[in-house]
């Protein structure tokens, strides 16, 4: 991957701002950056807008001048070398960290600076609660928002939450394991559980931090199929960090490559990473989804009953 | 074969486990018989028969003066103090530990305090407890509470800190507020560790109990041991010590079983 600036600009990936010394490439960049959004949603207002975001810890600049707009329903895969700020970017989206500079807008409003129910997350490890059964792990998400005092629902409400959780688990293929504890499940099953747990909240954004990094290749394929199926059924916007380039290319409708365009060998922390390549992928899936979204909602609803139900 | 690779079989394991006990017992019985042969009135190493007589006297014969069965009365009094002390300390330790380990604002205020408090030797402040709380039950229970609460709190704080940050974030994305996060995620995961911590401080709790009873009490296992010391009644002291050991072991065993019954997920989740 080219490390010099002109190479990065030539790739048409840096959505550079003019006042930051952009060269003639800037018009092209702007066009490229907004293109996927326009094609997908048909309007210019992005669902997620990242505006000139910097993140630094002390002297160490991790991300610099990050500008992105992402349309709703996009499946973004984030790839890049280790330590290039992919996971940092994910933490910013999650609200786990606050950007040092710049802002991130979700649907036009600044995102909350702490994790909340609008953004679901699946980590590589420790995503599920070891002390709860599979069923309770998923039902928890239905109980917590509705029981601010007890943290649990009672009677009929509890039964309804458990039924809904069981239906969700059935969908991810865990219907047979409702009473088990996570420690009794395989790694792949645990990640299925983590995904079910996140999706039962019907978040608008799903953040995946190398969710399948610890899984066998065969299991990974199954998980890809499951994830795409669930993505197809919902209007979910997905950000997925992965080290597996193939995974990034096959799953995403857009791949974001994080890299440091400038590197000072004497001060490795002086410059941060940016998105050096921003490539739309899998046109067919993208188009199919865009087509569904242009339909009137009652038609789309009857075509995809799970769109509202999941 | 190297020693490190040699494992006892099941019967061998039993034999090896019993062996040290058997050796100690034989050593005692031998020395006791020898001393008693030289001087039948020797009190230092009483024979099994003498100890059985003492147990008969203490446990199954009403006391001449009060009409009580002393061993049972002592046991009841001691266990009551120990139970109250452990219960209060567990509750306080759990609250402090969860607050300090989960909420950074509370942790900043509580952690250094707990560290310093746990360094205060509890027996050194026993006189203060007697002055403040008087010589009755309260000061003895308080000694146990003050002695083990900081230890429990620090242990639980540590354990709460070691909960993966991912779980706390995940709970927030599932709609938890601070209170429900503690209630449904932190607390249930710390309870088995509380039981384990309790097992570890059981020894200290007994130590504080017996110390307090020895100094100011009118009943209790520790009181009795120190009382009969005046008459060199080893025939009473030794069975009492064995009884205390048995009680402590039974409590430890019960806590271990309780952990397994109440928290079946815990063993698997550690891996």
* CATH fold call of chain A: Rossmann fold
CATH class of the largest domain in chain B: Mainly Alpha
Which range does the strand content of chain B fall in? under 5%
Number of domains of chain B: 2
> H/E series of chain A, N to C?
HHEEEHEEEHHHEHEHEEHHH
Summarize model confidence as the mean pLDDT of chain A.
Answer: 78
Query: What's the total count of β strands of chain A?
Result: 10
Query: So what's the overall shape of chain B?
Result: globular
Structural class designation of chain A: alpha/beta
CATH superfamily of the largest domain in chain B: MetI-like
CATH domain topology of the largest domain in chain B:
MetI-like fold
CATH class of chain A: Alpha Beta
Oligomeric assembly: heterodimer
List keywords for this structure.
heterodimer, A: 310 residues, alpha/beta, Rossmann fold, 11 helices, 20% strand, globular, B: 271 residues, mainly alpha, MetI-like fold
Task: Give the arrangement of secondary structure elements.
The complex is a heterodimer of chains A (310) and B (271).
Chain A: H1 5-10, H2 26-41, E1 48-57, E2 60-70, E3 75-80, H3 86-94, E4 101-106, E5 109-110, E6 119-122, H4 134-143, H5 155-171, H6 187-199, E7 205-209, H7 217-233, E8 237-241, H8 245-251, E9 254-259, E10 274-280, H9 283-294, H10 297-303, H11 305-309
Parallel strand pairs in A: 3-8, 3-9, 6-7, 7-8
Antiparallel strand pairs in A: 1-2, 1-4, 4-5, 9-10
Helix pairs in contact in A: 4-5, 4-6, 5-6, 6-7
Chain B: H1 10-38, H2 48-60, H3 70-102, H4 104-117, H5 126-133, H6 137-161, H7 165-173, H8 178-215, H9 221-228, H10 234-262, H11 266-270
């Amino acid at each position: 991957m080219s490390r010099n600036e002109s190479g990065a600009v030539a790739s048409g990936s840096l959505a550079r701002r003019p006042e930051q010394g952009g060269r003639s490439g800037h018009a092209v960049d702007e066009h490229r950056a907004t293109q996927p959004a326009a094609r997908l949603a048909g309007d210019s207002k992005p669902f997620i807008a990242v505006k000139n975001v910097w993140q630094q810890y002390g002297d160490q600049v991790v991300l610099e001048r990050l500008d992105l707009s992402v349309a709703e329903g996009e499946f973004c895969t984030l790839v890049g070398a280790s330590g290039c700020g992919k996971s940092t970017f994910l933490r910013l989206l999650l609200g786990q960290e606050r950007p040092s500079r710049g802002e991130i807008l979700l649907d036009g409003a600044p995102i909350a600076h702490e994790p909340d129910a609008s953004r679901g997350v699946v980590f590589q490890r420790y995503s599920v609660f070891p002390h709860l059964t599979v069923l309770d792990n998923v039902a928890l998400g239905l109980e917590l928002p509705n029981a601010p005092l007890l943290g649990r629902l009672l009677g009929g409400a509890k039964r309804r939450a458990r039924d809904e959780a069981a239906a969700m688990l059935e969908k991810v293929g865990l219907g047979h394991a409702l009473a088990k504890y996570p420690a009794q499940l395989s790694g792949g099953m645990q990640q299925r559980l983590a995904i079910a747990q996140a999706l039962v909240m019907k978040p608008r954004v799903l953040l995946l931090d190398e969710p399948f990094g610890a899984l066998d290749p065969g299991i990974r394929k199954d998980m890809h199929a499951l994830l795409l199926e669930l993505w197809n059924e919902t209007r979910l916007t997905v950000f997925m960090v992965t080290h597996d380039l193939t995974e990034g290319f096959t799953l995403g409708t857009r791949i974001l490559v994080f890299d440091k365009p400038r590197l000072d060998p004497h001060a490795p922390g002086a410059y941060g990473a940016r998105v050096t390549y921003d490539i739309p992928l899998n046109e067919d899936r993208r188009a199919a989804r865009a087509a569904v979204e242009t339909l009137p909602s009652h038609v789309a609803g009857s075509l995809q009953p799970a769109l509202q139900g999941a | 074969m190297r020693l490190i690779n040699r494992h006892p079989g099941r019967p061998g394991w039993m034999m090896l486990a019993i062996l040290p006990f058997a050796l100690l017992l034989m050593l005692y019985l031998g020395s006791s018989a020898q001393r008693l042969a030289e001087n039948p009135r020797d009190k230092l190493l009483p024979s099994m028969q003498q100890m059985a007589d003492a147990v008969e006297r203490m446990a199954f014969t009403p006391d001449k003066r009060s009409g009580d069965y002393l061993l049972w009365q002592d046991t009841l009094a001691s266990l009551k103090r120990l139970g109250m002390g452990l219960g209060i300390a567990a509750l306080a330790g759990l609250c402090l530990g969860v607050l300090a380990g989960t909420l950074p604002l509370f942790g900043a205020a509580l952690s250094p305090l707990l560290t310093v408090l746990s360094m205060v030797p509890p027996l050194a402040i026993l006189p203060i407890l007697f002055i403040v709380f008087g010589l009755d039950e309260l000061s003895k229970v308080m000694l146990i509470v003050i002695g083990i609460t900081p230890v429990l709190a620090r242990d639980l704080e540590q354990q709460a800190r070691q909960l993966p940050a991912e779980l706390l974030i995940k709970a927030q994305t599932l709609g938890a507020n601070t209170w429900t996060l503690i209630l449904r995620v932190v607390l249930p995961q710390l309870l088995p560790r509380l039981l384990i911590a309790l097992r570890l401080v059981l020894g200290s709790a007994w130590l504080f109990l017996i110390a307090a009873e020895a100094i100011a009490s009118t009943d209790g296992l520790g009181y009795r041991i120190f009382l009969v010391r005046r008459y060199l009644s080893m025939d009473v002291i030794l069975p009492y010590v064995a009884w205390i050991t048995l009680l402590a072991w039974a409590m430890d065993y019960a806590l271990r079983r309780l952990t397994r019954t109440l928290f079946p997920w815990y063993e698997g989740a550690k891996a």
